[in-house]
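Quick entry between incubations.
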Amino acid sequence: MAHPDTATLPTKRRLFVLDDEPIVVKRLKPAFQKVGYDVFVFTDSVAALSAFEDKPADIVITDLKMKGMDGITFLERIKAISPAVGVIVITGFATLQTAKESFHKGAFDFVSKPFKLADILDVVARLEASLGSDGHAD
Amino acid sequence: MGVLQRIALALHIRPRGTNPVPFVLMFKKFKSILERNNRILTLMADMGDKVGGEYVFDRRYIESACEELADQIFKLISDLSILNHCRNVSLFVAFERVRQEIAEELAGRHHFPDTPPTLPMSELRGDMGEAAGGKFSRLGELKNMLQLPVPDGFVITTGAFAEFMTSNGLPECIRRETERLDVDEEGTIQEASAVVRDRILGASLPRSLSRGIAESLADLAKRLGGPIQTLAVRSSAWDEDGETSFAGQYESVIGVLPKDVPAAFKRVVAGAYSPEAWLYRRRRGFKEHEAVMAVGCQVMIDSVVSGGMYTYAPLTRKEEGIFVSAAWGLCAPIMSGELETDSYLIGRTAPFPVLSQEVVRKSQLLALSARGGTAYADVVPEHAEAPCLTEADLSLLGEAAISLEKYFKRPQDVEWTIDAMGRLYILQSRALVFYGEPQRRTGAIDAATSRAEVLFSGRGDVVQRGVAMGQVYVLRTEEDLDDIPFGAILVTHYTSPRYSRVMARAQGILTDIGSPAGHMAAVAREFRLPTIVGCGVATQLLHTGDEITVDATQNVVYRGLVKELRYFELTEETVYEDSYEYRLLRRVLKKITPLQLVDSHAPEFTPTSCRTYHDIIRYIHEQAVAELVELSENRQGILDASASKLRSPLPLNLSIIDLDGERLGGMAEIEIEQLPSLPLRELLTGLLGSGMWETEPVPVDMGSFMSSLTRNLGLGAPGSEKLGRNLAVVSQEYMNCNLHLGYHFVLIDAYVGDNTNDNSLYFRFLGGVTDFSRRARRVRCIGNILERSDFRVEIHGDLVVGRIKQFEKETMCAKLRLLGGLVGFTRQLDVRMARENDSHCFAEEFLAAIKPVLEESYGTS
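Done. Structure below.
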């Protein structure tokens, strides 16, 4: 968590939220802003990927089932660009198979919709801990 | 309906009246109905939880939850079909209707509300915008939900407006003028507006509307306890005060005499076609068919002082405050900016101290005229330079401001007035549109929260999200409930529905224990009151007077006031409660959770009266119990061989069929302690433990026709084998017990498990032959006992029925022990009644004698 003295400095971690349902990104954005992230939200996976290509994020929260490029493909692409990125997969169609596949492709964790805000914040906090204090993706 | 036919075909294999399915299977069906019933209730509660805001859900969730629910209810009705030989086609019809309504909502097609032409203020709620327009549904919410003072009145609905328009051929006229506008908006707007407005002003009201207005005026006068002086007639368009602010676009007519309401209604409607309003709509992308308007009529308040208020002053960077502007007289010229106003900046917490004020010279005011209408007057010299608000007035305004903002989760722009008695009235409240500077929103927030001391976090369940800031009030006993200061954060050990009384005053609630599915939680959500239940440590860590910040979105409680959090919340781009998904879920839930079919004895307790899924499952539950009771009386299909026998010191001659399987085995005799059925064990414990069953033969009383028979039932009396076979069909949690005891017939049907919602107890007593007066006394006595033990009692001649349901396990067990005692007691009642007079006495005697049996903890037998 940011120290008061450094809070205004641009050292915030970049966090992307990608879900084709606008309500999900609308709800997650303020929740993560509040705990100190620089939050960017997308409802279109192609737009999210191009933003990621411009400047990778440290943490990405992505839906699986989306129109256009699906979450698994998106996951593969961003992992190829920045292997250090921590990815959390959210989806309403939770099955063991998709969960396994996303783990296999390097997702940190898997959260099924609907979920509590507190739950996803917890998962991100655990991800933070695993990334370490200087685990910025470049 | 193909589906209905298929079901009818599938189930109508045998003609009605025969019993095609073995009894045991029927019981299994019954049990599965109970289980499914419970699953449905859980699903419904889950959906209700999502409204609270702790969950992130999307449209697909709403769709799939509705689908699952519909599927379960369909199966539930099908289950009942087997129990009642498919006499429930009308239930399928009711189900299909509700399912269709939900599908329409999900598809975005609203059901146009079918309302009377006028609705009183007391019936308006925030979600009635389609019928009452944006402004008045919101005012109704303030008055009825937040208990804020709003002038009384009624609203002429959008339905009445539509009929007024159609019956006068106005839509065609407007369409013609619209076509002209499409060609040349600038050039034709004045003329088009004049044509439409003239047609509206010259139109006549449909008779139903004139009658509705006259009746509403009469009702209003009755509520006021005297004649109505004058009214304010105001527009309430769809979406007015909602997403789009039509502030100042539509017309209001003030100082209207009751007889002039129809004319004022037409003026307000015509106002929607003023060049300004019409162009505003067109330029905001409104379709012509969306120009739907309700018109509100409210009692005029004889204002002494009026003004506006911003609940969250964006004026200074450092200081938060409430900004109030005020001037003498009626509100209208103050809001339109015609008069100079005093301004005040007051604090945001009680007692709302004045932070700064600016008093100007006020020379004129608008006042009501004696014969209707309004007129300007000079302000009396001693008032001209004086501040027009007192500290008490400002404190009233401050409380209202915080209540409004807390509820709407967004700063509010409020119009208000105060009368000669010093009473405050809210005339309007709409979202104050201002966006926080992005840097200030996100830059300071994490610094502030990481600086603040976290008292506890992640404990308990968020019932309603939001941020609450203020002083703690730890409630030790409920008697202190009324002492809670305005704006306090209520901290208690338990949740209690009684706290709903203070929810309008409190800023937030924290409890040590409690469930997010409880009744209090539902009320907290209604009030949108930030609430976390089950924190475990709240009453230990917090003390009355502590200043804290509850972030019920993140589930964190901080020491001190973290103002940045409030700023962050109030300047959020989208308020969750304004999101489409939230509104959709609320609308869909309205077709699911309300329970209108409460009284199973009312004539409306029929499938056709079922309006919601909850109604349907309630009906089915009741119906399933009734079917089972009927089935058990008609003993066809029961196999005696599967029964075992109870060994007991009393000649009960009780056969037991265990539905759970062969646990009892063969025809073995078993002891009470071995009984796997909790309800039966409790019943027999009551029967044996109470000593109500006299072991000595009842003294011979020649006056009693049946005395010889009762004697036969005494311990070891010969021939008891030949007496009525008593039967209990049981499972671990269930018992259906039929007892013929001498000349009484008693039926007890009980389901007692860990799930309180499933628990039910049905007791039926049918007396035998004896003289009429004695019979009536006996029935009264049993009825009296049952009633005083919380049963719902029905008496028909010699039949007494008592029902009780949804009590927790332990209570249900105590009731069963009481019934056990009662069974024994009734056995001797008749005979004793031959000698003694007052049935009430017996009730007292019984209730006193049974007490120790009730106090034993359950399962001891």
